[in-house]
């Protein structure tokens, strides 16, 4: 039960809350059944519980396809299996499947913390298997006798078994031939655990990411790191607005950029290490000069990968911040950048019409809107009020509180109402400078949304209305712009420690997660082995595994859980010592009956007590219904024969 609880923990932590009782209740019932000696649940109840659990799972995930659904189903079935697990065979099945459940968690994360999780499940499984083996070995005799081994000795034994496997695992990891792609993968249609930015934006979508401190990507610059005000990591670009939600257009997804930016003296050069997102876009600063392999540059200059990012991806980038995006705008794109749904936000439309008459210049009008956000009582907050149909009206005239997506959406709608082409860009802004590795760490909580307006002569120009309300968001980061903690343990020193620890995670990514055929070849190059083919690699691997196995074999043959006596053996040894002190010769080779006969003949006054102790020890060792060890301890303690005169 402990092994199952450890193995299921990561999956349970990400499940919808209403599924948790389906895992916890069978586990709790089986624990009570063990303590109170309950009988198994009737078969009809087990069938009904299984059918109900599968029904709830299907309703929750909309079917049985997808990784999250499949692994959740495995976790639920393992927990329900406890309702009928009253034999060693069933217990072994659960422990074995716990190991399988552990491996499924690597579908979502291969971080360094998974070492702790995997080792915990492995050690718990080994301890469980040892205990089950002992119980099965004594099954003909009834309950297994008390061995005197503590939980720590069992854990130590299992840890030693795991430790002996580490050299073999390292050899297999280093020498196993690597292909250009993973040995196994997941069909794209089965991807169901989206992380990071979405392909749409509505009030609250980016706000939810602000609570997520998981890494999005890392950027290692050649030379100086750009100022924070320039760290806008471009992601999905949205053109279409239905009154509440923003989405990308057909042209944005399918048309390529008219021209590719050229490298100049002000270009930034850097390397991105992108965490898996299960999405197609990858991130870069404006504007990408290089296009990574397997990626295309769309008409709005976002990088779009042909395949979804399901594993760690590293790519080199060069960006030109001086590039002019679309100095001329086609009628089709202009129409898309001005389109608004009818019947929405009438108050805002009235206000914009009045302002536009007073401010005909596009640049002056933009500055007037930004000044309105800056001078009026608008607030940058993590918990804004909910908005209904007229989202911009309610935001501008009633709530006046929001996150970056509220300001970007309102500003873009206001620009379109004024006849200024505008669109929304989502991505990340800023990043934490890790001074140890000299790189930027961009977390999901750095997600951001801003606007771009098209102006004659300058093309698409970035305008960030959030900066007019909360300049600290751009200058210092999203965390420092908030006046309160996001949750109870959201302390600045704890965030700094977590960010500093990312240096270790980055090294793990470089040398373990991203250890591909290129890195494998580079590893052997100093030894003159850069031209090894897969056959040579396998041959070296087999030889090294055989050598290590021969070295470990003597250790395995001598391995014992504990070198000391168990509780019954210690009491028997103490009893024989008392007999020897009283003048009775007894050796370890004598059976309890032989010791009884020899001692009773010499110590006739204590013959009944000697017979009782011998009988207790024999029954503890061999009887089907063994007495408690405390009875033997009490009898030996009360046995006090006179010492033999010297």
Topology (SSEs and partners):
Blueprint: H1 2-14, H2 20-36, H3 43-61, H4 67-81, H5 88-104, H6 113-137, H7 151-175, E1 200-201, H8 205-209, E2 215-221, E3 232-238, E4 240-241, E5 246-247, H9 250-254, E6 268-274, E7 281-282, E8 284-285, E9 295-297, E10 303-305, E11 313-319, H10 331-338, H11 346-358, H12 362-375, E12 379-380, H13 391-399, E13 401-402, H14 404-417, E14 422-429, E15 432-434, E16 439-443, E17 447-455, E18 459-463, H15 465-469, H16 471-475, H17 478-481, H18 492-513, H19 517-524, H20 534-558, H21 567-581, H22 592-602, H23 607-622, H24 629-638
Parallel strand pairs: 12-13
Antiparallel strand pairs: 1-5, 2-6, 2-16, 3-8, 3-14, 4-5, 6-11, 7-10, 9-10, 14-17, 15-16, 17-18
Describe this structure in words.
The protein has 646 residues and is an alpha+beta fold. It has 3 domains: 2-146; 200-493, no CATH class; 567-638, no CATH class. Helix content is 50%, strand content 12%. It has a 5-stranded antiparallel β-sheet with strand order 11-6-2-16-15, covered by helices on one side. The protein has a 5-stranded antiparallel β-sheet with strand order 8-3-14-17-18. A 3-stranded antiparallel β-sheet has the order 1-5-4, with no helix packed on it. A hairpin with a 5-residue loop joins strand 9 (295-297) and strand 10. The longest helix has 25 residues, at 113-137. It starts with a helix and ends in an 8-residue tail after the last helix. Residues 182-190 have low confidence and may be disordered.
């Amino acid at each position: 039960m402990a092994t199952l609880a450890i193995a299921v923990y990561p999956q349970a932590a990400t499940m919808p809350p209403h599924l948790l009782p389906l895992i916890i209740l069978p586990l709790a019932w089986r624990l009570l059944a063990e303590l109170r000696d309950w009988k198994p649940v009737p078969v009809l109840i087990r069938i009904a519980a299984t059918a109900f659990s599968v029904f709830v799972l299907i309703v929750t995930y909309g079917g049985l396809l997808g990784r999250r659904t499949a692994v959740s189903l495995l976790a639920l079935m393992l927990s329900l299996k406890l309702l009928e697990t009253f034999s060693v065979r069933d217990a072994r099945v659960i422990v074995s499947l716990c190991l399988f459940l552990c491996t499924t968690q690597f579908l979502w994360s291969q971080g360094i913390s998974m070492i702790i999780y995997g080792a915990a499940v492995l050690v718990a499984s080994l301890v469980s298997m040892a205990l089950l083996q002992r119980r099965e070995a004594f099954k003909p005799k009834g309950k297994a006798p008390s061995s005197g081994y503590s939980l720590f000795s069992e854990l130590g034994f299992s840890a030693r078994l795991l430790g002996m496997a580490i050299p073999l695992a390292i050899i297999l990891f280093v020498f196993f031939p690597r292909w250009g792609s993973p040995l196994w993968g997941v069909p794209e249609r089965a991807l169901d655990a989206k992380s990071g930015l979405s392909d749409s934006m509505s009030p609250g979508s980016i706000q939810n990411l602000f609570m997520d401190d998981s890494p999005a990507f890392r950027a290692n610059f050649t030379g100086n790191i750009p100022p924070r005000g320039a760290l806008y990591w471009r992601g999905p670009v949205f053109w279409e607005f239905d009154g509440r939600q923003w989405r990308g257009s057909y042209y944005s997804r399918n048309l390529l950029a008219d021209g590719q930016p050229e490298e100049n003296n002000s270009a930034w050069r850097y390397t991105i290490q992108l965490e898996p997102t299960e999405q197609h876009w990858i991130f870069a600063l404006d504007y990408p000069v290089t296009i990574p392999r397997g990626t295309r540059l769309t008409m709005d200059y976002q990088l779009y990968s042909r395949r979804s990012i399901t594993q760690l991806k590293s790519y080199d980038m060069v960006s030109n911040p001086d590039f002019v995006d679309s100095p001329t705008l086609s009628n089709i794109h202009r129409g898309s950048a001005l389109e608004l749904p009818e019947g929405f936000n009438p108050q805002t439309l009235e206000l914009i019409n009045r302002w536009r008459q007073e401010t005909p210049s596009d640049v002056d009008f933009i500055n007037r809107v930004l000044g309105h956000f800056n001078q009026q009582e608008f607030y940058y907050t993590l918990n804004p009020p909910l908005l209904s149909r007229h989202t911009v009206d309610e935001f501008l005239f009633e709530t006046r509180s929001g996150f970056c997506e509220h300001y970007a959406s309102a500003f873009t709608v206001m620009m379109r109402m004024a006849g200024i082409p505008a669109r929304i860009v989502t991505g990340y802004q800023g990043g934490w400078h890790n001074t140890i590795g000299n790189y930027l760490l961009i977390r999901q909580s750095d997600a951001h949304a801003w606007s771009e307006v098209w102006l004659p002569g300058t093309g698409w120009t970035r305008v960030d209305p959030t900066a007019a309300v909360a300049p600290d968001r751009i200058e210092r980061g999203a965390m420092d712009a908030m006046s309160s903690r996001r949750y109870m343990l959201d302390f600045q020193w704890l965030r700094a420690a977590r960010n500093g620890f990312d240096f270790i995670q980055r090294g793990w990514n470089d040398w373990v997660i991203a250890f591909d055929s290129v890195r494998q070849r580079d590893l052997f190059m100093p030894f003159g082995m850069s031209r090894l083919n897969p056959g040579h690699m396998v041959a070296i691997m087999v030889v090294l595994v055989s050598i290590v196995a021969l070295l470990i074999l003597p250790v395995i043959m001598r391995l014992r859980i504990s070198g000391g006596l168990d509780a019954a053996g210690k009491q028997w040894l103490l009893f024989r010592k008392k007999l020897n002190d009283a003048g009775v010769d007894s050796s370890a080779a004598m059976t309890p009956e032989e010791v009884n006969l020899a001692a009773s003949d010499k110590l006739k006054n204590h013959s009944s007590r000697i017979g009782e102790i011998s009988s207790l020890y024999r029954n503890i060792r061999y009887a089907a219904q063994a007495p408690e060890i405390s009875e033997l301890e009490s009898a030996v303690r009360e046995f006090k024969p006179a010492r033999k005169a010297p």
